[in-house]
């Protein structure tokens, strides 16, 4: 089959879902991964894309780190914003332990990271990394809080709309939206609408790509 591109949309703290998709591709989609020419990601999606490209054998290790990291944050009084807790330093330690020494060489011109400049508000894709440190800085930048990035005069966030490198297979999270779906009687006899989650997602049918 012709070469395709694989992109992971921005998802913030829900990046563990992307890791699940990456793990499934490693186990059941090796044929597809061989045909991927470029990997792209925004926010947490850039972290997953970088691991899948440069260290696919460490996806499970990355998942364990993510779950342990989440539990650690939950124990903080104010989560990631707890005074004295260095969220980015902890994230960096995990990234440095997972990415191989030649990660920047493997990612050069194949990994496209979506970042937004805090000063100009302009978004761009970065795909050339002269060093491992340069690569780490660019995949961490989209995952920093805007106020942290602005203070450092750097970049933050990502824009998934820039990841359309056709033909592209995009990994997106299900989108949830509350909708009024009924009427519930309360103890006082009054009646009010019941909000239930409704899932909106585009089904992608590509089982032939996952055959070994």
TrEMBL record:
<keyword id="KW-0442">Lipid degradation</keyword>
<feature type="domain" description="PNPLA">
    <location>
        <begin position="6"/>
        <end position="172"/>
    </location>
</feature>
<keyword id="KW-0443">Lipid metabolism</keyword>
<dbReference type="InterPro" id="IPR016035">
    <property type="entry name" value="Acyl_Trfase/lysoPLipase"/>
</dbReference>
<feature type="signal peptide">
    <location>
        <begin position="1"/>
        <end position="24"/>
    </location>
</feature>
<dbReference type="InterPro" id="IPR002641">
    <property type="entry name" value="PNPLA_dom"/>
</dbReference>
<dbReference type="GO" id="GO:0005811">
    <property type="term" value="C:lipid droplet"/>
</dbReference>
<dbReference type="Pfam" id="PF01734">
    <property type="entry name" value="Patatin"/>
</dbReference>
<keyword id="KW-0732">Signal</keyword>
<dbReference type="GO" id="GO:0005737">
    <property type="term" value="C:cytoplasm"/>
</dbReference>
<keyword id="KW-0378">Hydrolase</keyword>
<dbReference type="GO" id="GO:0055088">
    <property type="term" value="P:lipid homeostasis"/>
</dbReference>
<feature type="active site" description="Nucleophile">
    <location>
        <position position="43"/>
    </location>
</feature>
<protein>
    <recommendedName>
        <fullName>PNPLA domain-containing protein</fullName>
    </recommendedName>
</protein>
<dbReference type="GO" id="GO:0019433">
    <property type="term" value="P:triglyceride catabolic process"/>
</dbReference>
<feature type="short sequence motif" description="GXSXG">
    <location>
        <begin position="41"/>
        <end position="45"/>
    </location>
</feature>
<dbReference type="GO" id="GO:0016020">
    <property type="term" value="C:membrane"/>
</dbReference>
<dbReference type="GO" id="GO:0004806">
    <property type="term" value="F:triacylglycerol lipase activity"/>
</dbReference>
<dbReference type="InterPro" id="IPR033562">
    <property type="entry name" value="PLPL"/>
</dbReference>
<feature type="active site" description="Proton acceptor">
    <location>
        <position position="159"/>
    </location>
</feature>
